[in-house]
Amino acid sequence: MPDTSRLNFASDNAAPVLPEIMEALARANSGPARAYGNDPLTMKVEAKLKEIFECDLKAFPVATGTSANVLGLSVLTPPFGVVYCHRLAHIEEDECGAPEFYTGGAKLALMEGEMGKLSAGALRTKIRHAGQGVPHHAQPAAISITQASECGTLYRADEISAIGEVAKEFGLSLHMDGARFANAVASLNAAPAEITWKAGVDVLSFGATKNGAMAVEAVVFFDLEKAREFEFRRKRGAHLFSKMRYLSAQLDAYLANDLWLTTARKANAAAARLAEGINKIEGASLLYRPEANILFARLSQEVIARLAKTDIVYYPPSEAQPDVMRLVTSWDTREADVDLMLDVMTGKV
Q1: Around Cβ 5, how many Cβ atoms within 10 Å?
Q2: Residues 215/63, Cβ–Cβ less than 8 Å
Q3: Residues 6 or more apart from 86 whose CB is under 8 A from it?
Q4: Residue 102's closest CA among 223, 205, 235?
Q5: I need a surface site. Which of 35, 119, 190, 348 has the fewest CB within 10 A?
Q6: Is residue 132 assigned to a domain?
Q7: 238, 258, 278 — which closes off a domain?
Q8: What is the CATH number of the domain that holds 94?
Q9: How does pLDDT run across 3-19, given as a tens digit for each residue?
Q10: From residue 244, how far is each of 45, 57, 63, 248, 272 by CA, in Å?
């Protein structure tokens, strides 16, 4: 059996930090710099994001995706508010009640949706019957969508625009969890503006950690009025870093020369290669059309047993779906890694 110890298809969080980002951190670690985000690097990052999104905006570096999501939502949602999201959304499944905590008690209204995505029609129906304006009911406040979704699928610009219209119709804000936003942009080959503010998005959690950064995300406000409160929310939530330059240095390198898109394309290409190979395995199938760097594969117990005998890292199938495996690629996944994974699955090694 060949050495499979470096193979990790559990999470893109497992990938190492990009060399360009490590070098940027070393460069930033020279001499003094103004604290709390008043340094030149932080200002440069915001200016670069304005170029990328083709608009005026406010950008706030934070250290985790959870903080980006929940602090952003805390500005959009009062304690008596409701955030509408897919039942598989990260804010529901993997943030330990942080959205409810940071909003002061707002509710998450969980919705179904094909391929991990919300639909404008279902949202309109749900919100129309939510008792808006009635003091006995929690009040609709925001919609949160995930790009790429937890199923590895993508919202097209027209789908986001339709949801944005629903938000506008009922006076709600639209939040986008963009932990894998780079993978979405790279796959759709879309201008970032077209799938964010031009489609009605008010706040974006702009991810970097899953795509090669050490520990940084940016909360991007396209609605500048809402950004005023965020400065205080971020401080109160313990994410106003005194040495902000080390967060911003990561983003500066990440955005330079479209590195963020180059790395996302690598991860997407690895997932596409893996998907192609899985489709050739007898009895195997994919639950969703692969669009980013996440796959859900239905595998035979024979294939699952082969993988269990190796030291390949992956999340095993759940009791609810004993034949379905979630597989994630990263910027660091090599073609040889994918091919070895497929060789193990098919019993070639």
Answers
A1: 10
A2: yes
A3: 92, 110, 111, 112, 113, 116, 117, 118, 145, 146, 149, 150
A4: 235
A5: 348
A6: yes
A7: 258
A8: 3.40.640.10
A9: 898 999 999 999 999 99
A10: 12, 19, 10, 6, 36
